[in-house]
Fold this sequence. Notes:
Blueprint: H1 3-13, H2 15-26, H3 36-48, E1 53-57, E2 61-69, E3 72-78, E4 82-86, E5 89-93, H4 98-115, H5 117-120, E6 123-130, H6 138-146, H7 155-161, E7 170-176, E8 184-186, E9 189-190, E10 192-201, H8 217-231, E11 246-249, E12 260-269, H9 272-292, E13 296-303, H10 312-323, E14 331-333, E15 336-337, H11 343-347, E16 352-357, E17 360-361, E18 370-371, H12 374-394, H13 405-417
Parallel strand pairs: 3-6, 3-7, 7-16, 8-14, 9-15
Antiparallel strand pairs: 1-2, 2-6, 4-5, 8-16, 10-12, 10-13, 11-12, 17-18
The structure holds zinc ion (ZN) (2 copies).
Amino acid sequence: MTRKEQAFQLLESMKEEIFELGDRLFSAPELGFKEEETARLISSYLTEKGILHEKGLALTGIRARLGDQGYHIGLLADMDALPVQGEEGPLTMHACGHSIQITVMLAVLTVLKKMALMEELPGRISFMAAPAEEYVDLDFRRDLIRAGKIRFPSGKQNMIADGAFDDVDCVLSCHISGSEFFRFDVGSSLAGFSAKKVIFEGRAAHSGVAPHEGINALHAATLCLQAAAFLTQQFPLEAGIRLYPILNEGGVSMNAIPERAVLETYLRANKTEDLFLLQDKFEKAARHSALGLGASCRIEHTIGYLPLKQSDALNEIVYRNMRTLCEEDMIEKNPVSGASGDIGDVAAILPAVQFGFSGSKGRVHSRDFEIADPHRTYMDPARVLLGTLIDLLENPELQVKNPDYLSDKAAYLEGWLLQD
Ligand SMILES: [Zn+2]
Ligand SMILES: [Zn+2]
């Protein structure tokens, strides 16, 4: 029997246990950096399997390791749920399927442990459960940052900054795709984003008696809205620029010239270069809109996530393993997604993949979301991951790394996380 056959047989024998673990995790939805029960479930499962692990990674995250030398593969899974609109008000739910990722990775890790694979082949596997991927509940995160408990808004950003990936060579992850047609997707991009808040300041005056003595901050904000609309035309369509500003404040009284106006917007782009270019162009447009009318402005920047660019080399291996489960036309190749995730940040410094799997029903991020086909949601991605891991460990020539990791990480910290 080959190693893959042995792994799949072990996986199959754990099926009921995997589905049950999946149910338990799905029934414990928690928002980012509040994943206490999820962490407890993961920890007790690992303990039961005799797998050493550490807790408290970026507050609620967990890391477990197998093997102690050689090529180091990170198995990364999200822990958090998100708020959705329920029938009777908002509720917290695993409507992005993150509980599935955790279940799949724990199953994979258990199979590897049972096979004692790391005693046969040199290599290291680190399972990392990462908190807070969904970009929500930001006031809570700002409080945590102020209290010095975390430094950045997302789990993986803190993990990167804390050095959790410093000895890792590559990262494998997967995510529910929500597709009703394709069984898998491979090589998907994700958009990157950041947010800007512009506070325009002018001077109040009586709008009937002496409007000319005022400086209308709303006019400056209006000019900026116009400029933002024009800016999108300075990028090719495939850059995926999405710029939909909202005006939050535009004056308090009709008989006064507004002295303050506030505009907020996400900046989205498919590629990192374009995101930085957009940030720069938008800032210039805002400043000059203010300047042009004699007003001034302050710009507050909030980091989001970098666009995702996956490793082609790793995806080739992933794709080959998907093909053992289905035909070519059941695999969507290189879809362009307008969604975002902090896996984009990880992939900026390490070779990484996040392939998509199916088996859900209802829209992702809505209360209709449900796990309809547990074989597809749990067993499919677990098999793809096991196959990919075994290929990587058996064939050193496939083992990709980033030789410039340290300088890339430094540039990432300075140019992205710590930009002002
Ligand atoms: Zn999501
Ligand atoms: Zn998600």
